[in-house]
Structure formats: C-alpha cells, structure tokens
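Lab meeting notes turned into a lecture example. A postdoc, R.K., suggested we walk through two folding results consecutively so the class can see how the record format repeats. The first protein's sequence and structure tokens come next.
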Amino acid sequence: MSIKKDALKPCRWVGSAQKDLQGFPERVKKDIGTALMFAQAGQKPGSAKPFKGVGSGVWEIVDDHDGDTYRCVYLLRLKEVVYVLHAFQKKSKTGKKTPPKDIEMIKSRIKLAEDDYKKRPAT
C-alpha cells in the first residue's frame, strides 16, 4: 500500500522522545518510523495497539529485536496531529506491564501535547 506523503498529518515530538528513538537499533527505528507514517496517514499500523490506563486516543508500537523490546507511545486524539510521547526500551524481562515511571512520563507528556496543540493547532 502506498502512502501519499503530502497527505500526512504533522508529527510532533514531545520531550526527549525523538532523541530516545534515535538511540534504538536501526531496524527498530525503521519499523517504528514506518508505523508512525501509517498513523500520520490515518491508518492503523499493524504493530500498534491501544495503550491502556492513560485515556483514549493513546497508542503504542511494540517492536522486539535481539531479545529486547522497544516501545513508542503516541497520541492521536488531537485532530490532525500525531504527537509522539515516549520511546523507550522495556527493561524488565518478565511481565508486560509498563513501569510506573514510564506511565507517569506519558501522562505528563499528554498534558504537554494538549497545551502545545492549543497554542499551535494543525494548519
């Protein structure tokens, strides 16, 4: 399926999310980048699922690589803009639960994204 790049929603990065993603392995960066482009095109990336516990419109991309799990959390509930909230490597080897410090960071970045959107709505 082809995506028209001129029809993509803008992607805005919150906090250190972009820098954190740049530290991921190349294949993971490519996979997450492709998934985010699908989200910008208004499509659901195959690797995306709702991120629970922080409100509606928050999605998570999960990518496994060489025994490690990488996550990228983004916000879709603000019209016409995709906000990337957090990118991190899951450290725990047992369980799927997101650590509380990461959940708190995501919640605070949702607030930052909402404030940014009020100041700079999509054009």
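The second example is placed directly after the first for contrast:
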Amino acid sequence: MKIIKPLFYVLLMSFIINSYAQDQKTQSNKHRGIDDFQFQLLPKTTDDPPYIVTRTDFTITLRDGVILDAVKFIPQATIPAGGWPTVIMHHGYGSDKEYLAGFCSAQAAYGYYTMSFSVRGQGLSGGLSNLISRTEATDLIEVVNWIKSDSVNGSDPDNILIMGGSQGGMLPYMAACMGQTSVGSLGVKTIISALAPPDFASSWIENGSIKMSLLWTVNYTPDIARYNSTVGRFAGWIIADTKEKWDSLAYWMPIDRDFMTLVPNNTTPLIMEGSWQDKFFNASGIIQATTLNTSPFRMYLGAVAGHGSDQSGTEDQWHMNFFNDWFFYWLYGYNNGTMDAPKYQYASTIHPAVNNHWTFVHDSSTVWPPANNSNLRLYFRTNQQLRTVPNTNPNSRINLQNKVTNGLTMTQAINEEFTGSFFKNRFKKVNLNFTTTALASDVKMVGVPKVNLQYSSSSPSSCQYNFQIYDVLPNGTQRLVNRINYTDRNNVANSVKTTLINGQAHSHIFKAGNKIKVTATNLDASFPEDTLLLQTNPFVLPVLVNSNNYINLNSNTYIDIPVVSTGLDAFTENVFSTTDPVEYKLNQNYPNPFNPATTIQYTIAKQDLVTLKIYDLLGREVKTLVNEFQEAGEHSVFFNASELASGIYFYKITSAGFQDVKRMVLLK
C-alpha cells in the first residue's frame, strides 16, 4: 500500500467579484460571485503522478421530473477496491457546475471520483429555485443516491465527502439534519460546511433589518437564477418598504429554510466554519449549532474567504493542516489525533490592517465561549463618552435624526447605490460617536456584542438604529470591527421602548493604548472596510421615514462587549487610562493620498459651532463638509471627491477660536 502524502493547501481560483450595471431607472444585477466558496485540493491518494481524468456530462431526473445538469470526473486507471474516494463539490447561489468543473478535474487527477451539479433553477438545470430550502436539500439526497449507484464507474458509496460554502454548505448540512425523507437519508462520510449557519434565513433579516445581500440574492436575472412564485415576490416586498410587505417577508423567509431545530438529528461528522465579517449571515448561528450538534465536529471562525470577508495568508496556512488532518481521519481512517484537538478553533482580528484586511491571530478552546469570558459593560453618555458607569443625568438623550426629504423611495436609493448628489440631497447620514478613554491593557472581545437600547422615535411606523464598533489607534486612525443593527417595524410615535439587540459575533483584540469607539448611525456603511463587497451600499437597508430618533443616555442604554479576562482588572474603569484629555485637534485624513473618498477626524473641547471646509491649491473654497453646532468630543466626516480633479487640497476647521489646516492629495 502506498503512503498518502499531504497536499499543500492550494487555492485554485480567487473569488470573482464582478461589477453590475445600473442606471437611475433599472438595476441589472449580474452574478458577482458573492456566494462562491474557495475550494482547496484534498490529499493525494497515492504516490503516482497525477492521473489523466475523463470528464462526463450527464443529467439526473428528480422525483418531480426536474432535470439537473451534472458533471463527473474519474481517473483513467484501475478502480481500487471499494472505489475511488468520492467528493461532491457544491456551488454557491447563482452559480453552476461549470464554476466548479476546474476544481473537480484537478481533484480527480489525484485519485478521486469527483462531481458537481447545478442546483435546480440555476445554471442549465430545470425547475425553479426555492432559495436554499428543504426542496433543494432533498434534491441533494437524490444526487447522492445517483452517485452511490455509479460504483461500477468508480464511486465509493461508503466514502463520500460533500464540501461547499454558503448554499453549498447549507444544503448538505440541512440534508444531513433532515434524517429519513421520501427519497432516503443523506448517508455520506463527512461534510465541510462553510459560511452556512442553520438560521441563515432569519439571519438575513435579523433584528428587523434587511441585509443588502438578501436583496441582491433574490434579484438575479433569469439567466442566473429562476425563482418560484413565492421567492419571486421577495425582491418586490423588500423594495416596497411597507409594514405589510415586511410582515410577509418575515413570515415566509424562515419556512423550510432555517434548520436550527433539526441540528440535533445530525449524525454526520462535519466541519462548520464561518467568517466574523460575513455580509450575509451572522456567525453566531454557527456557534449556536455547536451547542446542538451531537455528531463529531470541529468549528472554525475567523478568516474564511467569501461573503465580503477579510482574508489571511497565515490562516490559509493553518487551514492546510486543519483540512488534511480531518480528511485523513474520516476518509482514510488515520488515527492522527485530530479528534483530540480542541473543538473550537478561531482567529481574532487585530491591528494592523494590511491591504484593507485585518491581521488575524489564531487561538483555540475546548469550550465555547472560551474560559473566563464575561461582559464589559460600557454606557453611552453625554459628551460622546463611552464609560463603565452610567450618565450622571438620567434624563439626557440625543437625537439620531433620520432626515429624508423630497419623497426618496427605496428604489431610487438602491439605483443610486446610496451615494451621489441625488441620494445625498434627499437622505442625510448622521453619525453619533461614543468613545472610551485609551485602554490601559489589551481587551479581547470573543462572542456576540449586545446593545441594550432605550429609545423613542417620532416615526409613526418604522425607525432604525445601527451601531458600529471601531478600534481606534492613538493617531486617530480607525477601522470597523463589526456592527449591531436594529429596525423597529412596529414603532408607536414618541413611545419609550427598551430592547436588547444582538450584534454580529466576532473576536477582536483591542490593543493597550487604543480606544473603543461605537458609532450610532442611520446608514450602516463604512469606508473602506465594506468596499470589497458592498461598495457604497449599506450593510442593511435604511428606513426612509423622516423622523427624530432619540437615544436615552441613562443606565438603560449600554453595550455589552464579551471579553476574555487577561488576568487584569478588565471589567472596571481600570482597563482604561486615567487621563482623558479634552482638546481641540484636527487629524490627518485617512487614507491619504485617496481616490475618491477619505475620512477626516477631529476633536473639539466644548460644544460650539464647527465649520470644516475644503480649499484648492489657489485657496478657493470648493466644499463645506460641516457647518453646525456639535457636542464636545471626537467627530469624523466622510469626504467624497469624485467630482473634483486630481491635485492638492487643504481642509480647515474652525471652532470657538480654534483653527487648523491640513493638506491632502486626491490621486485619481
């Protein structure tokens, strides 16, 4: 018997992020690769050189007459006893078998029977898509049955692995949890399920907020995805932006899609992995599934390429051994200790950011949450403070004004991609910043941050509060960590409510000397962190109702950040430095040079009128960014110079006798 050699973790293809064309009237939403998963080759089965493989295109007729378009790749060699180890590669939503054909061919060359197929309603397969549901999961069971029956051509019915991300990770996991169905049970050896929390459908609309990625997913043209009558209504319901249509969406989305309650039924060993920065689904669903799953599993959360997430070369290297060890154990029966390793593997984001991606630090735990995990409670206070004690005036409040004018509609906002003069003249983005003092020691956040919010709104229907968590360096440079979103779809005008809002799960290390900043905003878009996938679009669709949305700054409004104790007094004000300088300061814009947008941060010592203006090299005023009274504390403003020519510009701040000027370079 020949020795199986590990194969280096190979990324055959990068994600394809295509642009899509639009004008002010219609949006043509082409497949952007936003739901694709990066596949890697598995270990070689022999010491032989790569095999020549045979490609066979074929079809599978399902129980309801729908015909699936499929492809298989088989080594041109003597079939080993029992058959070739068999791998099914499952594509993401809006893709097809051809996206994976190259992966399958390369894998088969190393001694595997491989196949892929186009899911119903996608690619060249027939039928209509029910958007990642029990229907498609049952289809997958029929596909597996077909592959098992093809043992005469080299498949191994007892040694099948299914791997995929997003739709490609959810359908095999869902099918495994469904148990016995009308077409049998899944019955495979193991699964790798990436970017696929079992509560994915609810996650798309969690806390009443609709993610931009859902609208994109249900708004494909027929050459990409063909929807059934129910799913075909989803885009219209979202764009209508009414309570009636929201109620319909909230009712239908989870039905036959979420499968968290079925997870205890799963008996198939699997790897569950996800990304902290997933723009589709909250990684908290993967964490919850680990508490319910009874089969052997390993969890990884951190840097998984896809859904607009940051990537990491060091984490890719770690994945090499992680995957190889799992495959060796389950496909070949090697007792290599993988089942003795900690079940919970994760990587924390940390400064510095390189090429617009966080640095990642790997860690693991035998339990979740990790030991010594507790909440660091920070209260929102006046003067833009974030502190461990509540505000001294319990009656204080601040207005997150949602100023919407000139009859702006959701269709218009979407077509403008939430930017440009047309949109900005009708929707005013507001940021309210709350910042800690400098940290005296490292603070490691691990888990789900939560905001307890006491609020009231003048809106007679809906209101929205978004909270962005930033890590701020001593020089003022900030970067988005993650967010918490909440939309009240049943608001009663001017009534006071209190609610607890779960945010996006994350692990991040705030270094000593940095500050934690939470920005409350009415439009959750952050530059440049979101540009990889969202571009200028928000994480969740905003509410387009003109209203005053108040946040009560008392003991009922705070953020709980789950942190792992470092042995220091991490849960009192001692974690922050005792000095809290209040001064006037104008920071250097970031990035600089820039194209076409940048962020300018500044600090004012007391409440007063603030003006911030842009001048060209000849001293001519070209733009007024700020001209209003502002509270003391740190502020930031986003400057889009897309309408200006390349060159040197200056920005000048004036407030209460303080003036400062800095230089910046627009480089197109």
